[in-house]
Amino acid sequence: MVLFLLLFLAPLGYAAYLSLFRERLIGGTAFVGLDNYAQALSDPQFLHGVGRVALFFVVQVPVMLLLALAFALALDSGLLRLARVIRLGVFVPYAVPSVVAALMWGYLYGPDFGPFAQLGRELSLPVPDFLSDGWMLGSLANIVTWEFVGYNMIILYAALRTVPEELYEAAAVDGAGAWRIAWSIKLPALRPALMLTLLFSVIGSFQLFNEPKLLMNIAPDVISSSYTANLYAYTLAFTGQQVNYAATVSFLLGLVIVIASYAVLLTANRRRTS
Amino acid sequence: MPQNTSTSMSGPSPMSRRLFLGTTGALSLGAALTACGGSDSADSAGSGKPVARADIDKAMKTPTELTFWTWVPNIDKEVALFEKRYPAVKVKVVNAGQGTPQYTKLRTALKAGSGAPDLVQIEYQAIPTFTITNSLLDLRPYGATALKSTFVDWTWSQISGSDGEIWAIPQDTGPMGMLYRQDIFDRHGIDVPGTWDEFAAAARKLHKADPDVLLTNLAANQVAAWHGLLWQAGAKPYVTSGKSDIAISVDDAVSRKLGAYWGGLAKEGVIGVEPDFTDSWYAALNKGKYATWITAAWGPVFLSGSAKATAGKWRAAPLPQWDAAEPSSGNWGGSTTAVIRSTKNPVAAAVFAQFLNTDPASAKMFATEQFFFPATDALLKDTEFVSDAPSFYGGQKVNQVFADISSTVNSSFQWPPFLDQAATDWTETVGKSLADRTDTVRALGSWQSRLTSYAKNQGFTVKGS
């Protein structure tokens, strides 16, 4: 309980406290009540940032979870050759720090000397500019997917391993094939694990930071300092020295995440009961 | 920053030993002569009165440990010289990151009220962002006034406050010049441009002759280069008076001239606009995509380390000029040593900051070991330094070129007390217009209005504009 208070509630309370003030370079600190919140709720940079990560979530997460599910089911089916190698291979990107991953992909995306661009030139194929306005969100989604498919796969795969063998045997006796088993036994068994990966993904998406922050170095004109809500909070605190407003934005972002998580849980539960 | 290996200097020569003694003498004299003044009050450390020689001597013999945040590689060698001279004082060197990351940590420590070092390495442009928060110690009482003539004029105005405070001691500088590919120029019959008009004509000519090669790259993420070019053109984008008054004019006639010029070349597609210091940019330099690099005095050593494939093909020249009759240049980079006001050992810290950058042996070591471009007049005239003729530049005396440029750097340029914000706003307005090849002059207006509203929000009185 003490730990919970110290590590969780205290920083949260402090952030909430900070968000009620406004410190300026000239004139010092003043209590401003909820002014910062009013400002944030009509701040286009904050709202665009939240909108962008919401879009990111809607597109990237289903792709990533479907891939993870496909890998988990394939591995669990035992029909795959080199299962160990594949399992490790899919998981390894998760072990690569996201900073390194973003740097590596940034290099691969390079429009002049990046391998994709060079290959495209060799083969006279048009290669899109992955770092341009139109492609950037997709390029980021690709990096995040690459990083986290393995992680989610392991969670789903572990859940599959807990399904009792008898169920499969009974299904086989009833004449069910591999697809039927996957659909009627494995997927229902995976529901709690899928829920978990989905929640992690909500939080991860809305907190998107490392990847855009690093790609910002190579595409500064595409990724602005408020590209994602989290990046915006960071910029406010460390570039603009607006610590109080940064606390406000972080607090609101936390609120958005709580609401989004709750909405996801609610939809999933409703679907199950209906 | 420069970090490759090359010839290293042996110990101090008799000559520098003599200079060394001279400087320490001047130091004590300065301490005795410094008139009192300055606006510091409250804390005893910055009372403005000159500290007596006897007190300095006493402090330097008292066992003390100083913490010094710096990102200079192998600075232990210079520190060792100091510790040899003042055995009672130990200096703990900490690398807290380079540039912005270090400033961020410093700001956090200052706010927290503990964990701040006694001294920090700080770039010229960052000084006002720390003086506005009252974080630096005025070094006048410790004899810094006497050092004025030691340094290149314009560096001294960079570290001086509006009431004559001395906020830091210059360490190295980055007067701007142009590195160019002699082979590419020869191949296409291009003369080294002396004016920006000639430069623009050369850009068009080169692009027509070979679309794969561009005359230069003006990085859309590099506000420091833009500031340097503004500096050269004589702009005064930020003029502060008093503590809370600032005139922001990043959209004045001089800025618009630059905006129209560079924005125009970018729009025509005859120059590159890719972000610098990235993999792609390094590859471009190595593969000859750019025929020049508009850079600073630290550029030659940096380039010879990162574009090895092009050794022997580069040469150095001054920046093209707006007015060839009155050559001028700007500065990009370089740093100083400052004492943090909260230090418990102001005397030892102040003496260290001065020794590190003015002791001839130590100053020379920065030039020969770390390849820093000097801030002291003596080194800029040191024959050993200026006659260095690296083969990467075909035996050209590159240091001499930049030493000559250093004397043409405009000394009236000022930085705003919120440089990070100015940089971010530049990248998202002016930089973006270059990258997108849209209207740069109009983008200057957005930069101006974003900065103005930020400054007002922070409580400044914004004048003019």
UniProtKB/TrEMBL annotation, chain B:
Pfam families: SBP_bac_1
Family annotation (InterPro entries): Bact_solute-bd_prot1, SBP, TAT_signal
Keywords carried by this UniProt record: Sugar transport, Transport
Protein name stated in the entry: Multiple sugar transport system substrate-binding protein
Organism: Streptomyces rishiriensis
Taxonomic placement: Bacteria, Bacillati, Actinomycetota, Actinomycetes, Kitasatosporales
